[in-house]
Amino acid sequence: MQTKILYLIPFFLIAVFSNIQSNDFLILQSTTSTRDSGFYDFILPDFKKKFNIDVRVVAVGTGQAIKNSENCDADLLIAHHKESELKLIRNGFGLYRKEFMYNDYILVGPKSDPSFLKNNISIESALEQIHNHELLFISRGDDSGTNKKEIGLWKKINFLPNPQTDKWYLSVGQGMGASLNMAVNKNAYLITDRATWISFKNKSDHAILVENEPLLYNFYGVIPINPEKCPNVKYTESKKFINWLLDEKTKEKINSYKLDNQQLFFTKIKN
Known about the structure:
Elements lengths: L1 H21 L1 E7 L1 H5 L2 H13 L1 E7 L2 H9 L5 E4 L2 H9 L7 E13 L12 H11 L3 E3 L5 H12 L12 E3 L4 H11 L3 E4 H6 L6 E5 L6 E8 L10 H11 L2 H8 L2 E2 L2 E2 L2 E2 L4
Parallel strand pairs: 1-2, 1-3, 5-6
Antiparallel strand pairs: 3-9, 4-7, 4-8, 4-9, 4-12, 10-11
């Protein structure tokens, strides 16, 4: 009996090893908004079930996610700042960019609305009011996609806040959740993505003041990392993931994701 058991052990180890090998994984560098909203917990089990490939998400600001990708610490990147994403491709680290979904940014602030921002019809006029009245504003200041978007919106009104001289403008170097908490606690204004706002529990007396305009659209792109720059990248598996992400069934799944009966992400409309 003992001899038979010893004889079977190598076959058992081979079976276990084969199972580990088949359970492959991808490293996905990602913006925080997709993770914090629960999006990955919602969709990634479907990918694992179909391909037996885990996706290990590293969620940081878009700027850091791109740096990590350039350090070859990624197989894939999902971000939401197109200009930075295209620069990654131009530098040879990304192969191509596929835009696969969008949501939008919003300006939130005190419900009491001392500056009557709700009467403004555009984010530009709202920022003008904040600037002119020196209303307390929280900026993530962390080189994230949201931070880059916010800076771009200030530039639209030909003004760039300086936290050293503009005391009403606080650049906190924090993620979206921490920045929202600070804005609520300080009765301040800030720009956030809608998905994070919907899932945020500590809204207190804050509300959406400006929303639903083209300047506030927030598009997400997925990029496979170039194996010529990063030899250990899992390109074949990455391609499977991207094809799955762009599949009509996955798009339906993305569109079905809701919190508090509100849809968080929308798949890109075909031209």
